[in-house]
Write a structure and sequence with these properties.
254 residues; 17% helix; 43% strand; 8-stranded mixed sheet; alpha+beta; 4 helices
Length: 254
């Protein structure tokens, strides 16, 4: 990721919805060294912010609806959440939740792109998003997996104005040319029941060692550590509750 703070149009936050909040706290603390702090207010619903040092880096939450899957979600920064959801709908997406105010920290919405991937919108007030990117244990890349890449490209460039750096095998997304993520064609590599989705990648010092820690802590390796040609070393892991996420070597651009 080529920026070190939230920028409008780029990913600003990632949060896990989990069926076992206490188990997730233990797993990710062991994996990344996070320090989780749960908001004690009843109306916060158990929302837990993970820190590295003084920086907020991600969130862990209980499942708030029966239909909500155990999964990581990615939020993108917008200047005006209400205007952003109008763009989403005009471009063929669907607004699932909101926009709604979250205390005094920001305004929030959940949307579905035309290919079926869920993403979130965040209009910052007192909380801009993650305080650190692409350092070990923090968000370093986000990747859309979809079966309809051209439709997704049209949608996201319309909604966010992203720049596109495309090659025959991979598309990279950027804000004004500063790449922060990519898009992969799901093709036949995923079972039909796996829906299109956004996958966060966390930076780590050692991908292979992190994969080993994840397995010993009760998680699983979905994609074994591999070095991407002209790119970083990566792996895709699954936590004990079933949420998938990626890891890549810190400081290595996708």
């Amino acid at each position: 990721m080529k920026f070190d703070k939230p920028v409008t149009g780029g990913p600003c936050w990632t949060e896990l919805g989990t069926s076992d909040l206490e188990g997730a706290k233990r797993f990710y603390t062991e994996l990344f060294g996070w320090r989780p702090q749960t908001d004690p207010r009843q109306e916060a619903g158990g929302y837990t912010v993970a820190h590295l040092g003084d920086a907020a880096v991600a969130a862990l939450t209980p499942l708030y609806q029966e239909s909500q899957p155990v999964a990581w979600n990615v939020s993108f920064a917008v200047a005006d959440a209400d205007a952003a959801v109008r763009r989403v709908e005009e471009a063929g997406g669907t607004v699932v939740l909101g926009p709604m105010d979250v205390f005094d920290v920001g305004r929030f919405a959940v949307a579905l792109d035309p290919t079926g991937a869920v993403f979130q919108l965040w209009q910052a007030r007192s909380f801009p998003g993650a305080g650190l990117f692409d350092a070990p244990g923090t968000l370093g890349w986000v990747e859309l997996a979809t079966r309809h890449t051209e439709r997704a490209r049209d949608f996201y460039t319309t909604v966010f104005g992203w720049s596109v750096n495309a090659s025959p095998w991979y598309t990279q997304w950027g804000v004004d040319g500063e790449d922060f993520g990519g898009m992969a064609d799901m093709g036949d590599r995923f079972p039909p029941e796996v829906a299109p989705h956004w996958l966060p990648y966390f930076a780590v010092e050692d991908v292979d060692a992190t994969a080993g820690i994840a397995e010993r802590a009760g998680g699983a390796v979905v994609l074994a550590p591999v070095s991407v040609p002209d790119g970083p070393r990566i792996a895709v892991l699954r936590d004990p509750q079933g949420a998938a996420f990626g890891v890549h070597r810190a400081g290595a651009e996708g």
